[in-house]
Protein backbone atom coordinates (compact mmCIF):
# COMPACT_ATOMS: atom_id res chain seq x y z
CA UNK A 1 0.00 0.00 0.00
CA UNK A 2 2.81 2.44 0.87
CA UNK A 3 4.67 1.61 -2.32
CA UNK A 4 1.51 2.16 -4.35
CA UNK A 5 0.92 5.55 -2.75
CA UNK A 6 4.48 6.68 -3.45
CA UNK A 7 4.24 5.42 -7.03
CA UNK A 8 0.94 7.25 -7.43
CA UNK A 9 2.25 10.58 -6.16
CA UNK A 10 5.56 10.27 -8.03
CA UNK A 11 3.82 9.42 -11.28
CA UNK A 12 1.22 12.13 -10.74
CA UNK A 13 3.85 14.78 -10.09
CA UNK A 14 5.97 13.99 -13.12
CA UNK A 15 2.96 13.52 -15.38
CA UNK A 16 1.52 16.85 -14.29
CA UNK A 17 4.89 18.37 -14.95
CA UNK A 18 4.76 17.13 -18.53
CA UNK A 19 1.09 17.71 -19.26
CA UNK A 20 1.01 20.85 -17.10
CA UNK A 21 -2.65 20.36 -16.20
CA UNK A 22 -3.80 23.02 -18.66
CA UNK A 23 -2.08 25.76 -16.64
CA UNK A 24 -0.87 27.39 -19.87
CA UNK A 25 -3.11 27.70 -22.92
CA UNK A 26 -1.51 26.28 -26.06
CA UNK A 27 -2.34 25.99 -29.76
CA UNK A 28 -2.47 22.79 -31.83
CA UNK A 29 1.33 22.80 -32.14
CA UNK A 30 1.68 22.86 -28.34
CA UNK A 31 3.03 26.40 -28.26
CA UNK A 32 1.68 28.91 -25.73
CA UNK A 33 -0.93 31.32 -27.08
CA UNK A 34 0.05 34.09 -24.69
CA UNK A 35 -3.33 33.91 -22.97
CA UNK A 36 -4.20 32.82 -19.48
CA UNK A 37 -3.32 33.79 -15.93
CA UNK A 38 -0.27 31.51 -15.57
CA UNK A 39 1.30 32.67 -18.82
CA UNK A 40 0.77 36.38 -18.23
CA UNK A 41 1.82 36.41 -14.57
CA UNK A 42 4.49 33.68 -14.51
CA UNK A 43 5.70 32.51 -17.94
CA UNK A 44 6.06 35.95 -19.52
CA UNK A 45 7.92 37.48 -16.52
CA UNK A 46 10.25 34.47 -16.32
CA UNK A 47 10.99 34.75 -20.03
CA UNK A 48 11.80 38.42 -19.59
CA UNK A 49 14.14 37.67 -16.68
CA UNK A 50 15.87 34.95 -18.75
CA UNK A 51 16.36 37.45 -21.59
CA UNK A 52 17.65 40.04 -19.12
CA UNK A 53 20.28 37.69 -17.71
CA UNK A 54 21.18 36.32 -21.14
CA UNK A 55 21.26 39.48 -23.25
CA UNK A 56 21.40 42.55 -21.02
CA UNK A 57 23.93 41.07 -18.59
CA UNK A 58 25.62 39.00 -21.29
CA UNK A 59 25.50 35.73 -19.33
CA UNK A 60 24.06 33.61 -22.14
CA UNK A 61 20.82 31.66 -22.20
CA UNK A 62 22.23 28.54 -20.54
CA UNK A 63 23.37 30.37 -17.42
CA UNK A 64 20.20 32.47 -17.51
CA UNK A 65 18.03 29.32 -17.36
CA UNK A 66 20.11 28.05 -14.44
CA UNK A 67 19.79 31.31 -12.49
CA UNK A 68 16.05 31.71 -13.04
CA UNK A 69 15.43 28.06 -12.15
CA UNK A 70 17.47 28.37 -8.94
CA UNK A 71 15.67 31.60 -7.94
CA UNK A 72 12.19 30.16 -8.55
CA UNK A 73 12.98 26.82 -6.92
CA UNK A 74 14.35 28.54 -3.83
CA UNK A 75 11.20 30.66 -3.64
CA UNK A 76 8.93 27.60 -3.62
CA UNK A 77 11.36 25.46 -1.57
CA UNK A 78 9.51 26.22 1.71
CA UNK A 79 6.37 24.61 0.25
CA UNK A 80 8.30 21.44 -0.58
CA UNK A 81 9.91 21.40 2.86
CA UNK A 82 6.52 21.91 4.51
CA UNK A 83 5.16 18.92 2.62
CA UNK A 84 8.23 16.88 3.57
CA UNK A 85 7.91 18.06 7.17
CA UNK A 86 4.43 16.52 7.48
CA UNK A 87 5.37 13.36 5.57
CA UNK A 88 8.48 12.81 7.70
CA UNK A 89 6.49 13.31 10.88
CA UNK A 90 4.04 10.61 9.83
CA UNK A 91 6.89 8.34 8.70
CA UNK A 92 8.64 8.57 12.07
CA UNK A 93 5.38 7.85 13.87
CA UNK A 94 5.01 4.71 11.77
CA UNK A 95 8.59 3.71 12.60
CA UNK A 96 7.95 4.17 16.31
CA UNK A 97 4.70 2.20 16.15
CA UNK A 98 6.08 -0.63 14.02
CA UNK A 99 5.73 -3.16 16.91
CA UNK A 100 1.98 -2.54 16.69
CA UNK A 101 1.65 -2.42 12.91
CA UNK A 102 4.04 -5.26 11.96
CA UNK A 103 1.86 -8.12 13.33
CA UNK A 104 -1.16 -6.70 11.50
CA UNK A 105 0.78 -6.40 8.24
CA UNK A 106 1.97 -9.99 8.65
CA UNK A 107 -1.59 -11.10 9.24
CA UNK A 108 -2.64 -9.26 6.08
CA UNK A 109 0.21 -10.82 4.09
CA UNK A 110 -0.59 -14.33 5.29
CA UNK A 111 -4.36 -14.07 4.96
CA UNK A 112 -5.81 -17.15 3.31
CA UNK A 113 -9.25 -15.75 2.55
CA UNK A 114 -10.63 -12.41 1.46
CA UNK A 115 -12.49 -12.13 4.76
CA UNK A 116 -9.26 -12.51 6.75
CA UNK A 117 -7.52 -9.92 4.60
CA UNK A 118 -10.41 -7.49 4.98
CA UNK A 119 -10.40 -8.00 8.75
CA UNK A 120 -6.66 -7.31 8.89
CA UNK A 121 -7.09 -4.15 6.80
CA UNK A 122 -9.81 -2.94 9.13
CA UNK A 123 -7.60 -3.69 12.14
CA UNK A 124 -4.74 -1.71 10.55
CA UNK A 125 -7.00 1.25 9.85
CA UNK A 126 -8.30 1.14 13.42
CA UNK A 127 -4.78 1.01 14.85
CA UNK A 128 -3.69 3.92 12.67
CA UNK A 129 -6.71 5.98 13.69
CA UNK A 130 -6.20 5.22 17.37
CA UNK A 131 -2.60 6.44 17.20
CA UNK A 132 -3.12 9.48 14.96
CA UNK A 133 -1.57 8.13 11.76
CA UNK A 134 -2.62 9.80 8.52
CA UNK A 135 -3.93 7.41 5.86
CA UNK A 136 -2.07 9.39 3.15
CA UNK A 137 1.18 9.48 5.10
CA UNK A 138 1.02 13.24 5.59
CA UNK A 139 1.48 13.90 1.87
CA UNK A 140 -1.02 16.63 1.07
CA UNK A 141 -1.96 17.67 -2.45
CA UNK A 142 -2.27 21.41 -1.75
CA UNK A 143 1.49 22.21 -1.61
CA UNK A 144 2.01 20.26 -4.84
CA UNK A 145 -0.86 22.06 -6.55
CA UNK A 146 0.53 25.43 -5.48
CA UNK A 147 3.96 24.56 -6.90
CA UNK A 148 2.67 23.24 -10.23
CA UNK A 149 2.05 26.65 -11.89
CA UNK A 150 5.67 27.58 -11.15
CA UNK A 151 6.93 24.31 -12.63
CA UNK A 152 4.70 24.91 -15.65
CA UNK A 153 6.01 28.44 -16.09
CA UNK A 154 9.63 27.29 -15.87
CA UNK A 155 8.97 24.55 -18.40
CA UNK A 156 7.44 26.92 -20.98
CA UNK A 157 9.96 29.68 -20.31
CA UNK A 158 12.86 27.26 -20.84
CA UNK A 159 11.31 25.83 -23.99
CA UNK A 160 9.77 28.80 -25.79
CA UNK A 161 11.72 31.90 -24.78
CA UNK A 162 13.03 33.45 -27.99
CA UNK A 163 16.74 33.00 -28.43
CA UNK A 164 17.16 29.79 -26.42
CA UNK A 165 16.73 27.42 -29.38
CA UNK A 166 19.50 29.23 -31.30
CA UNK A 167 21.99 29.36 -28.41
CA UNK A 168 24.38 26.89 -26.82
CA UNK A 169 25.77 26.22 -23.35
CA UNK A 170 29.14 24.54 -22.78
CA UNK A 171 29.02 23.34 -26.37
CA UNK A 172 25.47 21.94 -26.01
CA UNK A 173 22.84 23.16 -28.46
CA UNK A 174 19.92 24.20 -26.26
CA UNK A 175 17.44 23.78 -29.09
CA UNK A 176 18.20 20.12 -29.67
CA UNK A 177 18.22 16.94 -27.63
CA UNK A 178 21.35 16.42 -25.50
CA UNK A 179 22.27 12.89 -24.41
CA UNK A 180 24.85 14.32 -22.00
CA UNK A 181 22.21 16.26 -20.08
CA UNK A 182 19.81 13.31 -20.26
CA UNK A 183 22.38 11.05 -18.57
CA UNK A 184 23.14 13.75 -15.97
CA UNK A 185 19.47 14.30 -15.11
CA UNK A 186 18.88 10.55 -14.82
CA UNK A 187 21.85 10.18 -12.43
CA UNK A 188 20.72 13.16 -10.33
CA UNK A 189 17.20 11.85 -9.85
CA UNK A 190 18.54 8.38 -9.09
CA UNK A 191 20.78 9.85 -6.36
CA UNK A 192 17.79 11.72 -4.97
CA UNK A 193 15.81 8.46 -4.91
CA UNK A 194 18.63 6.70 -3.03
CA UNK A 195 18.80 9.54 -0.50
CA UNK A 196 15.06 9.18 0.10
CA UNK A 197 15.75 5.72 1.60
CA UNK A 198 17.92 7.16 4.38
CA UNK A 199 16.28 6.92 7.80
CA UNK A 200 13.54 4.48 6.78
CA UNK A 201 13.04 1.17 8.57
CA UNK A 202 13.87 -2.08 6.78
CA UNK A 203 10.27 -2.79 5.78
CA UNK A 204 9.87 0.65 4.19
CA UNK A 205 13.25 0.32 2.47
CA UNK A 206 12.25 -2.97 0.91
CA UNK A 207 9.09 -1.38 -0.42
CA UNK A 208 10.87 1.73 -1.67
CA UNK A 209 13.67 -0.18 -3.40
CA UNK A 210 11.17 -1.10 -6.07
CA UNK A 211 10.42 2.59 -6.58
CA UNK A 212 13.85 4.21 -6.85
CA UNK A 213 13.97 3.65 -10.60
CA UNK A 214 10.54 5.12 -11.37
CA UNK A 215 11.33 8.83 -11.05
CA UNK A 216 14.71 8.69 -12.90
CA UNK A 217 13.20 6.59 -15.68
CA UNK A 218 10.24 8.91 -16.20
CA UNK A 219 12.38 12.07 -16.25
CA UNK A 220 14.75 10.43 -18.75
CA UNK A 221 11.81 9.50 -21.01
CA UNK A 222 10.51 13.07 -20.86
CA UNK A 223 13.99 14.44 -21.60
CA UNK A 224 14.29 12.27 -24.72
CA UNK A 225 11.48 14.28 -26.29
CA UNK A 226 12.57 17.70 -25.02
CA UNK A 227 15.23 20.19 -26.17
CA UNK A 228 18.35 20.63 -24.08
CA UNK A 229 17.06 23.94 -22.67
CA UNK A 230 14.25 22.10 -20.88
CA UNK A 231 16.56 19.25 -19.79
CA UNK A 232 18.94 21.85 -18.34
CA UNK A 233 16.05 23.19 -16.26
CA UNK A 234 15.36 19.64 -15.03
CA UNK A 235 19.07 19.16 -14.22
CA UNK A 236 19.00 22.23 -11.98
CA UNK A 237 15.77 20.95 -10.43
CA UNK A 238 17.55 17.65 -9.69
CA UNK A 239 20.26 19.47 -7.74
CA UNK A 240 17.59 21.34 -5.77
CA UNK A 241 15.81 18.04 -5.05
CA UNK A 242 19.05 16.59 -3.68
CA UNK A 243 19.54 19.68 -1.52
CA UNK A 244 16.00 19.32 -0.20
CA UNK A 245 16.59 15.62 0.54
CA UNK A 246 19.76 16.47 2.50
CA UNK A 247 17.77 18.94 4.60
CA UNK A 248 15.15 16.26 5.25
CA UNK A 249 17.66 13.52 6.13
CA UNK A 250 20.02 15.48 8.35
CA UNK A 251 17.81 18.14 9.90
CA UNK A 252 14.08 17.38 9.67
CA UNK A 253 14.19 13.59 10.24
CA UNK A 254 16.42 13.66 13.38
CA UNK A 255 14.21 16.38 14.85
CA UNK A 256 11.05 14.44 14.05
CA UNK A 257 12.45 11.24 15.52
CA UNK A 258 13.17 13.02 18.79
CA UNK A 259 9.80 14.78 18.76
CA UNK A 260 7.84 11.57 18.16
CA UNK A 261 9.72 9.75 20.94
CA UNK A 262 8.92 12.56 23.37
CA UNK A 263 5.26 12.63 22.35
CA UNK A 264 4.77 8.90 22.89
CA UNK A 265 6.64 8.99 26.18
CA UNK A 266 4.07 11.47 27.44
CA UNK A 267 1.16 9.70 25.72
CA UNK A 268 2.03 6.01 25.22
CA UNK A 269 0.72 4.30 22.07
CA UNK A 270 -2.74 2.78 22.33
CA UNK A 271 -2.51 -0.99 22.30
CA UNK A 272 -5.86 -1.79 23.89
CA UNK A 273 -7.11 -3.47 20.73
CA UNK A 274 -3.99 -5.55 20.20
CA UNK A 275 -5.87 -8.79 20.91
CA UNK A 276 -8.18 -8.10 17.98
CA UNK A 277 -5.19 -8.23 15.63
CA UNK A 278 -4.74 -11.95 16.30
CA UNK A 279 -6.65 -14.52 14.33
CA UNK A 280 -9.54 -15.89 16.36
CA UNK A 281 -9.33 -19.68 16.34
CA UNK A 282 -11.99 -20.23 19.00
CA UNK A 283 -14.71 -22.55 17.58
CA UNK A 284 -18.12 -21.06 17.15
CA UNK A 285 -20.95 -22.05 19.48
CA UNK A 286 -22.68 -24.10 16.77
CA UNK A 287 -19.45 -25.99 16.07
CA UNK A 288 -18.93 -26.65 19.75
CA UNK A 289 -22.45 -28.11 20.02
CA UNK A 290 -21.97 -30.29 16.96
CA UNK A 291 -18.64 -31.59 18.23
CA UNK A 292 -19.89 -32.54 21.69
CA UNK A 293 -20.01 -36.31 22.42
CA UNK A 294 -23.48 -37.71 21.89
CA UNK A 295 -23.98 -39.21 25.38
CA UNK A 296 -27.64 -39.99 24.72
CA UNK A 297 -26.70 -42.13 21.73
CA UNK A 298 -24.07 -44.03 23.73
CA UNK A 299 -26.52 -44.55 26.59
CA UNK A 300 -29.14 -45.78 24.14
CA UNK A 301 -26.68 -48.24 22.63
CA UNK A 302 -25.74 -49.57 26.06
CA UNK A 303 -29.43 -50.12 26.95
CA UNK A 304 -30.04 -51.85 23.66
CA UNK A 305 -27.30 -54.36 24.44
CA UNK A 306 -28.80 -55.11 27.80
CA UNK A 307 -32.23 -55.68 26.28
CA UNK A 308 -30.84 -58.16 23.73
CA UNK A 309 -29.04 -60.08 26.43
CA UNK A 310 -32.32 -60.67 28.16
Q: Overview of this structure, please?
A:
This is Membrane protein insertase YidC. Residues 295-310 have a biased composition (Basic residues). The chain has helices at residues 2-19, 37-56, 61-96, 98-109, 114-130, 141-160, 179-195, 202-209, 214-224, 228-266, 285-290, 295-309; strands at 168-169, 172-173. It is mostly helical. It has a domain at 34-99 and 139-266. The longest helix is centred in the C-terminal third of the chain and has 39 residues, at 228-266. The protein is elongated.
Please report the number of helical segments: 12
Major sheet characteristics = 2 strands, antiparallel
Order of helices and strands: HHHHHHEEHHHHHH
Helix percent reads over 70%
**What's the rounded overall pLDDT mean?**
75
Low-pLDDT windows of residues: 1-9, 17-21, 272-291, 306-310
- By DSSP, the count of extended strands is 2
The helix/strand class is mainly alpha
Shape: elongated
Strand content: under 5%
Strand order of the largest sheet: 1-2
First-residue to last-residue Cα separation: 74 Å
- Gyration radius (Cα, Å) is 30 Å
Organism: Streptococcus gordonii
Transmembrane segments: 50-76, 135-158, 178-198, 210-226
InterPro entries: YidC/ALB3/OXA1/COX18, YidC/Oxa/ALB_C, YidC/YidC1/YidC2_Firmicutes, YidC_ALB_C
GO molecular function, one term: membrane insertase activity
Amino acid sequence: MKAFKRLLFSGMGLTLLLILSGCVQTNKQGQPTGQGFVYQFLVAPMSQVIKYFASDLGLGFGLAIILVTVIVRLIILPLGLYQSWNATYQSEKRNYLSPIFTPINERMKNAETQEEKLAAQQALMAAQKENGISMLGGVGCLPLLIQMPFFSALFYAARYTKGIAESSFLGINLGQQSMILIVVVGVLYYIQSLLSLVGLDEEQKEQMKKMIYVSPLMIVIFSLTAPAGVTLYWVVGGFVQILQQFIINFFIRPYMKKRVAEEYEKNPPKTMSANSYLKDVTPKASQAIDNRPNNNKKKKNRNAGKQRSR
